[in-house]
Amino acid sequence: MATQSTIEWTEQTWNPTTGCTKISPGCKNCYAAVMARRLHAMGASGYENEFELTLHPKRLEQPLNRKKPTVYFVNSMSDLFHEDVPNSFIDQVFSVIESTPQHTYQILTKRADRLPEYFKTRTCPKNVWLGVSVEDQKYGVPRIDYLRQVDAHIRFLSVEPLLEDLGSFDLSDIHWVIVGGESGHKARPMKEEWLANVKRQADAQGCAFFFKQWGGWGADGVKRDKKSNGRVFKGRTWDAYPVTQIAA
User: Are 29 and 187 in contact (CB under 8 A)?
Assistant: First the structure.
């Protein structure tokens, strides 16, 4: 089944694939890999291969069985555009998406270079929010240019975990920016000035800004549990979503 999500910016998760491989510093302490090991140990269905990339054709029908309009995060436990996921399977995922216009689908990838290639001969459905992960300057920021090449109704960035100051970067044609620090006992710290720099540029370039969490390190530079550090930045929470509405 698709499952209710604890991720602050979505409603449910839908994982037609599970498992992945690490390709950049943002992957170092992958929460999905840790969760997959736990689920495998518990004997959970779909995690027989632990965190090895696995396609789940039987899960494709899950959104078709839900009439209530729902926001789905696609592949919280994988990357739909992983190099070992064939185009034919991605096509099946998008076929389901097009068949369920009442739902909104948030798709996030680190394999941004595959996006313009895939969509060169395909149309991105209007109920898709397409995003890339941006954790640093070397690996993350270049992904934004690949995303910009796709004619997606909404394009977004997941700047999580934010591992360094991103400097100046172009947010033209980007509609939404999510920022978060890393969680878990091996979490790397996020500095307040890095977060402030992203927010300043999002505001200046007209992007909706969503601050997800401080993670394992607080704004004061003290390491503690994620819940204690909370989500407050500059005296408030920031929960903006893209202004553009998805048409049913």
Answer: yes
Mean pLDDT of the chain: 95
Could you tell me the residue ranges of all domains in the chain? 10-229
Residue 1, exposed/middle/buried by CB under 10 A (0-12, 13-18, 19+)?
exposed
Pairing verdict, β 12-14 and 3-4: antiparallel
Instruction: Tell me the whole-structure pTM to 2 decimals.
Output: 0.95
**121-124 long-range CB contacts below 8 Å, 24 or more apart?**
122/91, 122/94, 123/151, 124/150, 124/151, 124/152, 124/153
For the domain made up of 10-229, the CATH class stated in words is: alpha beta
For residues 103 and 106, give the distance between their C-alpha atoms in angstroms, rounded to a whole number: 10
Q: How far apart are the C-alpha atoms of 142 and 112, rounded to whole Å?
A: 9
Helix (H) or strand (E) holding 159: strand 154-159
Place of tokens 């060169």: 120
- Of 246, 239, 16, the closest CA to residue 129 belongs to 246
AA letter at 68: K
| Residue at token pair 């070397």 | 138
Residue 247 in this model has a pLDDT that exceeds 90: no
- Is residue 147 within 8 Å of residue 81, measured between CB atoms? no
